[in-house]
Specification:
Length: 397
């Protein structure tokens, strides 16, 4: 029964408010099962009955809606030198936010993070379901949230486990590009799309893969798009191998090229490069043609394998999509199998806050996950939402 309650809660959270009749149709549940499931959720204060006039016939139909305040979640986007965080409700709406300097490479980086989170957890009114953290790096699947991030300077740090214990709160960790894909699949443009890719450009180049409506995480991580081999340049990448897409197409790689070709002065930033490239076609070609075509060929290969309906372009580097797209789009067209060209490419405006919301969506997803997700952290989130009893969690932890 709890499994049906779970399914009903997920449907109301993502598609609600919705009538019982619609839920029964969408989920293929019998009348009695649905009644039992909705009663279970109503009794726990997770959903509420709303009155709404039906569009035809004038009969008033009762719709079921989520009680957004039933749980609060903190979502954090970690960067090398700062963090941005939000507190969201169960409808993914931002209640309040905070940001802080954060030195990921410092001696006491984890202690610093713990103290920032502790201070802000005190501000949460109501039930804190958990903390979701997006990191720019590889996160091992499973409960311990072990992360390896060249950007943060972390090598196999059990961040999830350490933070969960020290904060006495479920802490879920995921690669930040994946958190963005989760948010898009639950609440954004990917909501009605079963198969889509999120490509992020910028400091790193990443990819989130949503297949059959679920984020694909692989057995050893997935979506390491920046590290597909595209060049025979012997240039060592942060990941440990050479010839990676990032070695020619990341913002730092483009900036290095621009400095060595003397298009910009030493100490310039990527913003200076964009300015030059926008005002001088020759500079744009010299800097973006080869990397753009490399991104396009690599992306076409992924599209040919997975056949998505939608490709979202995001990341801080996507602000230069006007410079990239003249090189990427035509090359993509040529390299995608003709029968698979029926997909859309959309620009997904980038900001840190959105990524923090995505990190919060990790916890939201755990709270709404069906019974197939039996990870201890996921179960701990559910017990805080009172969707499963606490003793079932302690057995698993
Ligand atoms: Zn690499």
């Amino acid at each position: 029964m709890r499994d049906s309650a779970n399914e009903v809660l997920r449907a109301i959270a993502t598609d609600g408010p919705v009538s019982r009749a619609q839920l029964a149709r969408d989920l293929g549940l019998s009348g009695p099962t649905l009644t039992q499931a909705t009663k279970y959720l109503l009794d726990r204060g997770l959903i509420i009955e709303l009155e709404q006039t039906a569009s035809t016939g004038g009969r008033r139909a009762t719709l079921l809606g989520l009680v957004a305040g039933a749980g609060q979640i903190i979502g954090v986007k970690l960067a090398e030198d700062h963090l941005v965080a939000v507190c969201i409700d169960m409808e993914s709406q931002i209640q309040w936010k905070f940001s802080s300097d954060f030195n990921s490479r410092g001696e006491g980086a984890l202690e610093e993070l713990i103290s920032i989170l502790k201070k802000n957890m005190k501000r949460v009114s109501g039930q804190l379901l958990g903390i979701g953290i997006g990191v720019p790096g590889v996160v091992s699947p499973g409960d311990f949230g072990t992360t390896k991030s060249a950007i943060l300077g972390w090598d196999s740090v059990n961040v999830g486990k350490i933070l969960s214990e020290r904060l006495s709160t479920p802490v879920l960790l995921e690669n930040d590009v994946n958190t963005l894909a989760i948010d898009e699949s639950l609440f954004g443009r990917g909501k009605d799309t079963s198969n889509f890719l999120t490509l992020t450009l910028g400091r790193g180049i990443g990819m989130g893969l949503v297949i059959n409506g679920e984020l694909y995480v692989g057995s050893h991580g997935a979506g390491e798009f920046g590290h597909v081999t595209v060049a025979n340049n012997k240039q060592l990448c942060e990941c440990g191998k050479s010839g990676c897409l990032e070695t020619i197409a990341s913002d730092p790689a483009i900036l290095n090229q621009a400095i060595s070709k003397k298009f910009v002065r030493e100490n310039s930033t990527i913003l200076d490069v964009w300015k030059k490239a926008r005002s001088d076609k020759k500079i744009a070609t010299a800097l973006y043609k080869i990397p753009g075509q490399a991104i396009a060929v690599a992306l076409a290969n992924v599209i040919n394998v997975f056949g998505p309906e939608l490709v979202l372009i995001s990341g801080e580097g996507s602000e230069a999509w006007d410079i990239w797209s003249p090189w990427i789009l035509p090359e993509l067209e040529v390299n995608v199998v003709p029968t698979m060209r029926n997909f859309n490419i959309e620009l997904d405006p980038w900001d840190d806050e959105k990524w923090a919301v995505g990190a919060g969506a990790l916890v939201l997803r755990a709270s709404l996950a069906t019974s197939s997700d039996r990870s201890a952290t996921g179960m701990a989130v559910k017990s805080r939402l009172r969707i499963i009893p606490g003793n079932e969690v302690s057995k698993r932890l």
